[in-house]
Design brief:
The chain is built from seven helices and no strands. The chain is mostly helical and 220 residues long.
């Protein structure tokens, strides 16, 4: 235990082998990366925040697809708003430009659903936002040490659901989008649990664990 040197950055910079093959490459349109998200500097506060947000997203996913199309649109806007908060806390303080690109797409999707013309179909916006969320999660999982056995099946299912969005419309599209959000929620909950467990190990190891590690930043 004396050799354990963990901090928030190293929790998310250890390599994981093989996870990248479980999802397709990014298909969302290019977006200008937004600024690096602001978050609490204390890892304990981040873990607590992440746990709270993950629970809220899980409850929201249980309400999907909503009572009607307007309710579905409202709930999906809320989902993307929650992901804007959750994903930076998963990625840590030094996200790369590609991650910020995906986060900006999610932010744009949230704004379009919340304030865009109500007579336009929300389906393309929802599809784009879900793909960006999938890609941001996959990139974060690749940058951190996560159990491939736990996450790969969920990413496979999520990829299949997102692909199905291209072939369905109307109420069926709403149903599939809700199922995709449910899978995203499960992935986030598992990743949040891992981060919490690592922080507990770090705290139990004492002062030696809080020293900066020799590895580089997760930002690229």
């Amino acid at each position: 235990m004396n050799d354990i040197r963990l901090n928030w950055t190293t929790l998310l910079t250890l390599s994981v082998v093989g996870l990248g093959g479980c999802v397709k490459s990014r298909t969302t349109p290019p977006a200008q990366p937004g600024p690096a998200p602001q978050m609490a500097s204390d890892p304990t506060v981040r873990v607590q925040t992440l746990g709270r947000l993950a629970d809220t997203l899980a409850r929201t996913s249980n309400q999907l697809p909503g009572q009607d199309s307007a309710d579905h649109r409202r709930l999906m806007a809320y989902v993307f708003g929650q992901l804007e908060e959750i994903l930076p806390n998963l990625a840590g303080p030094n996200p790369g430009g590609e991650f910020r690109e995906q986060l900006q797409i999610i932010r744009d999707s949230q704004g379009e659903l919340a304030t865009g013309p109500q007579d336009l179909s929300p389906e393309p916006t929802i599809d784009t936002g879900l793909r960006a969320a999938r890609d941001a999660l996959a990139a974060t999982a690749q940058a951190g040490f996560y159990s491939r056995a736990d996450l790969t099946p969920l990413f496979d299912q999520l990829g299949a659901k997102i692909n199905n969005l291209d072939t369905v419309r109307g109420p069926l599209h709403q149903l599939v989008a809700g199922e995709a959000v449910g899978l995203i929620s499960q992935i986030i909950s598992k990743m949040a649990d891992v981060i919490g467990q690592r922080l507990a190990v770090q705290n139990a190891a004492g002062p030696a664990a809080s020293q900066p590690a020799a590895t580089g930043s997760s930002g690229k």
